[in-house]
Amino acid sequence: MRRIALIAATVIGSAVLSLSPLSIKYLATQKSVAVSEDKANAAVGKPLSAGSVAGVHRRQERRQHHQNTAPK
Question: How many Å apart are CA 53 and CA 41, to the nearest integer?
Fold first, then answer.
């Protein structure tokens, strides 16, 4: 019974950590465990970012141009 509880706790703990923006890090120099919040720095909306509409359009145009001008 104890083994099943340990497995269930491990599965639930890993599910919670994978769904939440938290990281657990072991600090070897201090021999301790630290929990930190992950932060995303999204650049969507800036014209030169890869995820912006302008960036996607520019990349598609460039690929299409390279496909049309490639040596045959």
Answer: 17
Give the span between the Cα atoms of 52 and 46, in whole angstroms.
Answer: 6
pLDDT tens digits for 32-62?
A: 888 888 776 656 555 555 566 677 777 888 8
Q: Are 54 and 47 in contact (CB under 8 A)?
A: yes
Contact between 57 and 69 (Cβ < 8 Å): no
| Cβ proximity of 21 and 4 under 8 Å | no
pLDDT for residue 3: 93
Q: Is the pTM of this model over 0.85?
A: no
**Domain ranges across the chain:** 1-40, 42-72
Q: What is the dihedral of CA 28, 30, 35, 38, to 10 degrees?
A: -70
The full length of the chain comes to 72
